[in-house]
Amino acid sequence: MTELHQWIITHDLIHYPKEPTSRDDQGTYGPRRGFVSGRSMSYEFRMRDDDYNCYYIGLSSHKDVFAPLDDFGKPNAGCTSIEYRNKDGHWETL
Fold first, then answer.
1. What range does the domain containing 47 cover?
2. DSSP characters for 30-86?
3. Alpha-carbon distance 11 to 15, whole Å?
4. What is the mean pLDDT of the chain?
5. Residue 48 CB: number of other CB atoms within 10 A?
6. Span 54-85, pLDDT tens digits
């Protein structure tokens, strides 16, 4: 059985603090089906648009997967890339 990949948005950089009265996507998680609370999510990621603006930062249970981008970033905000923080603290684009 394949282990389920999980992710959560920890920072919504489009809606907060620029538009504090609008919706805030912080706390959005996926996948909706099969999400297991408490599973270790220790890989930090961020999603950007074509202009290299950072929209979301989050945590993932797996590194080097496109699931947060495909599940949420693209359809919700038009994000086009996802980066993961490596052991040296630098961001690597998938």
1. 1-18+40-55+70-80
2. E-STT--TT----EEEEEE-TT--EEEEEEESSSS--HHIIIIIHHHH---EEEEE-
3. 10
4. 85
5. 20
6. 999 999 998 888 999 999 999 999 999 999 99
- pTM beyond 0.85: the answer is no
Whole-number Å distance between alpha carbons of 68 and 74: 9
Judge whether 11 lies within some domain.
yes
Question: How many domains does the chain contain in total?
Answer: 1
- Domain assignment present for 12: yes
| Beta carbons within 10 angstroms of residue 25's beta carbon | 20
Residue linked to tokens 């909706």: 32
Token pair belonging to 43? 């890989």
Report pLDDT for 1: 35
